[in-house]
């Protein structure tokens, strides 16, 4: 009886483990997996670990990252980050035929490397990322520009792996694989990703509460759900026991059929799904992009569902960053309020919103076509939390 060939994910995992073992202290390099040659160094552009953030002009985010690296291990037993890595690129560029494949995504490879380096520098135990560039976006065409994130995508790790690096096990949602959770090795494990970097078994993802639509294609309205929106959960075995992590990327508003819609009906349905995933008596985290701030009057309907589950004496505690006026600090660059949240039923502590003015403030924007005004920049700020388990 002949044995079946080992899957590609096995060899990718072995390659990552080899790279991690061979360069523990030296400069990080970028590699690809070639089916014929094996591990190949890509020397034509800077790798994620080679992005130099130390020489950039200092900003508030840099100081917070430095503080986090020094204090996280000694002052808390759980560090968390949630970051929507989507961009302001919402419509195709008529002069760029391939731009349609990068809508809402990070397209510039140097910028992706920079964001990944910022995230990894903080070494969060758990990282939730939303609007990640999915493999399907790159496999649908051939990118010939080496400055873009889909270039030679079949020879490199997926976008989420490039952002987090081999120190994290990763699992994504079960629909579009655009909402992902990274678990730092040494802090926790995913049973479905023991031998590989990315779990081939997705998170348990709730069915959409309304018929699906394509937000990028302009086909969404109040009666539909963006097909990328999701509420998912996964069990993580951590250094202080099992934790159920509920990762959300709830339905947002947008433009459909030439008019604005709020997307509220789907969002509330998904919020209820996320709360239903929290198991009473089991340590649970709920985190990600909720697409609303319950402090704002325009979200009064969602607030009623939020207040029933979150607050003193209720199922969940919020760890959101708030200003002196008691209002949430905005987690979006367009100042839409605090839309990215971290909730738990077992921890104490507050999150902080990075940075001032933005998480990418020290990036060299001369590498982007429109400089600092480029639509390929992130439109959310990172949220970082130091929590203590009760």
Structure report:
This protein is an alpha+beta fold. It has a single domain (8-50, 59-389), classed as Endonuclease/exonuclease/phosphatase (Deoxyribonuclease I, Chain A), CATH 3.60.10.10. It is built from seven helices and 20 strands. The chain has helices at residues 8-22, 60-75, 109-122, 135-139, 159-164, 264-277, 300-309, and strands spanning 31-34, 38-41, 78-84, 126-130, 168-172, 180-184, 188-189, 204-205, 212-213, 225-226, 230-238, 241-249, 254-256, 259-261, 284-289, 317-318, 340-344, 347-348, 351-354, 382-389. Strands 3, 4, 5, 6, 18, 19 and 20 form a seven-stranded mixed beta sheet that branches. Strands 7, 8, 11, 12, 15, 16 and 17 form a seven-stranded mixed beta sheet that branches. A two-stranded antiparallel ribbon has the order 1-2. It is globular. The protein starts with 7 loop residues before the first helix and ends with a strand.
Given the helix and strand composition, which structural class is it?
A: alpha+beta
Report the CATH topology name: Deoxyribonuclease I, Chain A
Q: CATH homologous superfamily name? A: Endonuclease/exonuclease/phosphatase
Tell me about the biggest sheet? 7 strands, mixed
CATH-derived architecture = 4-Layer Sandwich
What radius of gyration results from the CA coordinates?
20 Å
Number of helical runs?
7
Number of domains: 1
Assembly form of the protein = single chain
**What is the residue-averaged pLDDT?**
84
In whole angstroms, how far apart are the ends? 54 Å
Helix percent band: 10-25%
> In CATH, what is the class?
Alpha Beta
Low-confidence stretches: 1-12, 18-64, 68-76
State the shape: globular
Strand content: 15-25%
């Amino acid at each position: 009886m002949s044995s079946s060939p080992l899957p590609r994910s096995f060899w990718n995992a072995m390659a990552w483990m080899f790279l991690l073992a061979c360069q523990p202290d030296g400069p990080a390099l970028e590699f690809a997996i070639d089916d014929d040659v094996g591990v190949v160094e890509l020397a034509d552009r800077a790798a994620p670990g080679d992005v130099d953030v130390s020489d950039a002009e200092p900003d508030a985010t840099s100081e917070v990252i430095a503080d986090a690296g020094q204090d996280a291990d000694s002052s808390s037993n759980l560090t968390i980050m949630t970051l929507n890595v989507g961009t302001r690129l919402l419509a195709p560029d008529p002069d760029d035929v391939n731009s349609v494949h990068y809508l809402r995504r990070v397209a510039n490879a140097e910028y992706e490397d920079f964001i990944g380096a910022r995230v990894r520098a903080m070494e969060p135990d758990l990282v939730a990322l939303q609007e990640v560039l999915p493999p399907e976006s790159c496999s649908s065409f051939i990118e010939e520009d080496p400055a873009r994130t889909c270039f030679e995508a079949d020879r490199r790790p997926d976008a989420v792996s490039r952002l987090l690096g081999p120190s994290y096990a990763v699992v994504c949602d079960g629909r579009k694989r655009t909402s992902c959770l990274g678990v730092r090795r040494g802090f926790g494990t995913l049973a479905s990703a023991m031998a590989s970097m990315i779990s081939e078994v997705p998170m348990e993802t709730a069915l959409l509460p309304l018929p699906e639509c394509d937000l990028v294609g302009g086909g969404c309205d109040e009666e539909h759900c963006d097909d990328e929106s999701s509420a998912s959960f996964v069990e993580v075995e951590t250094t202080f026991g099992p934790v159920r992590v509920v990762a959300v990327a709830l339905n947002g508003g947008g433009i459909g059929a030439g008019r604005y819609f709020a997307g509220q009906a789907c969002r509330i349905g998904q919020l209820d799904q996320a709360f239903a995933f929290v198991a009473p008596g089991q340590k649970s985290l709920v985190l990600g992009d909720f697409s609303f701030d319950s402090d704002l009057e325009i979200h009064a309907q969602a607030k009623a569902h939020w207040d029933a589950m979150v607050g003193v004496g209720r199922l969940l505690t919020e760890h959101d960053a708030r200003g002196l006026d008691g209002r949430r600090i905005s987690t979006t660059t367009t100042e839409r309020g605090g839309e990215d949240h971290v909730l738990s039923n077992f921890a104490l502590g507050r999150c902080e919103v990075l940075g001032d003015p933005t998480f990418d403030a020290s990036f060299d924007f001369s590498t982007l076509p429109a400089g600092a005004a480029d639509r390929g920049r992130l439109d959310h700020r990172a949220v970082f939390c130091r929590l203590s388990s009760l």
